[in-house]
Amino acid sequence: MAKILRDEDLVDGALMTVAIDALETAFLARAGNRLISPPRHHVSFADRGDLVFTVGGILGDKPLAGFRVYETFEGVEHSQIVAVWSADDARLKGIVLGERLGNLRTGAIGGLAIRHLSAPDARTVGILGSGAQARTQLAAAAAVRKLDRARVYSRDEEKRTAFASEMQHALDIEVEVAGSAIEAVDDADIVICATTSQTPIVHAGDLKPGAHVNTVGPKTHRGYELGLDIADAAAVIATDSPEQTRAYASPFFLAGSGNDSRMVDLADIIAGKATGRRSPEDTTLFCSVGLAGTEVVVASAILDML
Amino acid sequence: MAKILRDEDLVDGALMTVAIDALETAFLARAGNRLISPPRHHVSFADRGDLVFTVGGILGDKPLAGFRVYETFEGVEHSQIVAVWSADDARLKGIVLGERLGNLRTGAIGGLAIRHLSAPDARTVGILGSGAQARTQLAAAAAVRKLDRARVYSRDEEKRTAFASEMQHALDIEVEVAGSAIEAVDDADIVICATTSQTPIVHAGDLKPGAHVNTVGPKTHRGYELGLDIADAAAVIATDSPEQTRAYASPFFLAGSGNDSRMVDLADIIAGKATGRRSPEDTTLFCSVGLAGTEVVVASAILDML
């Protein structure tokens, strides 16, 4: 019988590692043209809003198929549904309801970028932002690197303090509160930028040589959280979905900068088809846009585990 | 918290009446252009099969939105998912899994046709076919007319005998087994044709004057279960979806017969915008094709009830 999971079922600390490993499989499938990831499908209910479907799956030995659906209706209580079938025997593996899977998925994509782009001996993380995405990104970093310390900055002192104590407890690493963005990233091997800022809050000169940077927040011409000089300084610029960076209503923040043409697909780096970090001094940049179809793969791995 | 219902939850005998009444609301919404029913959306997973989405909903006072999804993968265990939101507050009302809702929906559409097209004093039913659709069609007829007796015929004697005893018990009316199709419909005020036959098994001359006929089985040029002379004899020919009758790969069985142009939308009959039965002697014909979007409306009513 198909399993049904809800947010309260997705609390196991081991889920992040499971999600990252599942995504590694998905990105390898993508590099081999076996990841199914068609454009989103919107259906309008007049002025009420839309249902938006993202279908996804993997072809090959153990084929998966499924979808995520969310709505844009007006209300306080929103629900996403992700459903997964094993496509070789038509079995509905299960359904995952709620918000947590999506955050876990985005965090895990960040973790995969950190696994393949940051220095293997990275020990320190600087985090800008203290929301749900910042939490899952840090958890993902901790899942792929042996961290000693993280340092967080966000505008709201109360929130960054809560973030630090909560994450120190959850991940069992030292998490400090910084007084500024610059202080947070100053000594960081890994920088996670997961804010809602429409103006850059960190620049190339603020970074330690050899740092890896994940940008999860705004990154269009209308607004972006990272200084453009970080892309100039980066030896590698990667993204999970080059298609998606070209599909934003406002152009991608690197469009026209000369750096967008050298952006590579993270899937190709993972598969060894594109070059990643070459030296401990390289600055590397990962632009997280949310590769469609991957919610299904993460949901499948979680349904197998729980 | 969103309700999850499965086939085993959908056993209450009152569900059919709830489904028919919900569909009456949906058909009135359709007549008023408030039923959302876009074309199906197929996503292919290469040679494994497709996911097929049917989105649907109702606009107006208590707007509903949702979808049904099914797959065409190879396997023995298949699962449909229907999800419903109330579109005014973005609340996920629930999810219905399994096959039963779809059968209930198709049965209830047949019941709605019987309610609005058969003679108000219809007492007897002739059923051709003894599968799941025949069961729900008879249950639907019993929900809208005060029946004395039903008579069933299908090719497999064991199946028709099982059908008769099972339905007699379930509906508390006399259900007899007939030795032929002609014997089953001979004296019937209501004829339900729910077979897989590609050649006509009943003709106009077999029917009692004033009979109402539901055809649920094959009805394309490639094969059809009803004699074309039944359409010739019918004073009213209705369908739940004129669009769908024009969208079959093989043309609709009435295409080119001259009768297709006088086919009316059941929604318009229900709303009083088209003429239905005018006399006790009228033969009436309902061609059930499965109006898209209505699963969502039935699921919503069931989620409210259970």
Automatic annotation (TrEMBL), chains A, B:
Keywords, alphabetical: NAD
Transmembrane regions: none
InterPro entries recorded: NAD(P)-bd_dom_sf, ODC_Mu_crystall, ODC_N
Keyword NAD carried by entry: yes
Any single GO CC term annotated in Swiss-Prot or TrEMBL for this entry: cytoplasm
Family in the record: Belongs to the ornithine cyclodeaminase/mu-crystallin family.
Listed name of the protein: Ornithine cyclodeaminase
Taxonomic source organism: Rhizobium anhuiense
